[in-house]
Amino acid sequence: MAYTAPDKATFIAVFPSFAAVTDEAYAFWSARAGRIIDPMQSCLGDDADLAAMLATAHYLSQAGIGTGAESEMAAQGASGFKRIKSGTIELERADSASSSDAGEWGATSYGLRLWPMLLACLSGPRVTGTGTLPCGSGYQGGLLPWHY
Questions:
Q1: pTM for this one?
Q2: How far out from the chain centre does Cα 58 lie?
Q3: What's the DSSP call for residue 139?
Q4: Would the CA dihedral through 107, 110, 112, 117 be positive or negative?
Q5: pLDDT at 74
Q6: Contacts of 10 (CB under 8 A, 6+ apart)
Q7: Exposure string (b/e) for 14-46, b if CB count within 10 Å is 16 or more?
Q8: CA nearest 74: which of 88, 57, 89, 87?
Q9: Helix (H) or strand (E) holding 144
């Protein structure tokens, strides 16, 4: 049976900054989140609903929907800023290894919270020239440090 994301009322209760989201927008983005979570539902277990809501919040933020700072910045086309200056205020987003490692998920705080959950379900044994490391999860995308 396919995974079904939490309903809009539950989502808004957990993430009130999206209270103004339309039914259509919620249905679209939560269905997309559901397709991401569905194949990982057994791995995520009790956290499947949280993962789906984080993914939905991530997508809504990127679409500029919601009252949070990330949503408002995306609505104004400034979500991926490195540096913004307005009068006497200067904002600069620091490069973060965790956000760059997370790819698209690193673009919002919701995606950054979701990424470790997804990664735990996607990682598997690493294969090297000498065989499989049964307990290794890799080291910065490569071999474990004791193989250097």
A1: 0.68
A2: 6
A3: B
A4: negative
A5: 52
A6: 49, 53
A7: ebebbeebeeebbeebbeebbebbeebbeebee
A8: 57
A9: none
Copy the structure tokens of residue 143. 């071999």
Strand partners, 26: none
pLDDT tens, position by position, 50-92: 999 999 999 999 888 887 666 556 555 555 555 556 677 765 5
SS3 string, the chain, reads CCCCCCCHHHHHHHCHHHCCCCHHHHHHHHHHHHHHHHHHHHHHHHHHHHHHHHHHHHHHHHCCCCCCHHHHHHHCCCCCCCEEEECCEEEECCCCHHHHHCHHHHHCHHHHHHHHHHHHHHCCCEEECCEEECCCCCECCECCHHHC
Structure tokens at 98: 């965790």
At position 16, the amino acid (one-letter code) is P
